[in-house]
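Quarterly update from the structural biology core.
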Amino acid sequence: MMRRLNILMLVAGLSLLACSTEKKSEKSLELEGTWQLISATTIDKGKSETTDYSGKLKMIKMFNDSHFAFLKHSLDPKDTVSFDAGGGIFVLKGEDYTEHLEYYKNKNWEGKTFNFKLAIHNDTLIQKGIEKVEAAGVDRVIIEKYLKVR
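Predicted structure, tokenized:
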């Protein structure tokens, strides 16, 4: 009887360990912190365009355990127009990343949900997915490459 109880407890313990390991691997990407955008590629109607963010434009994206925010501006002191910002909540399951944009200057984008795939290689984050906002006439693939700064 005691041996059966020990075996049952061992099986139960291993089952719990397997469940906790599974949950850890689901959220294995370490997003938390600040990431600087290096380049952004948009593919719209078969046409690809890449923007280099190492020159006159700078953008960062910040993550905590549940929210994201991004800020973009021109480094040209005379350019007071090129500013963009937004943020909201996100869910990360493995490499599947879903943003729910709660705050943005263009109200057509607010309340929208975007699904992406994420990959992190050392200090580089790659975000790829589709941005589709019918009210803004947007339906394109984006690929963004970030470098971890903090």
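The chain has a mean pLDDT of 85.
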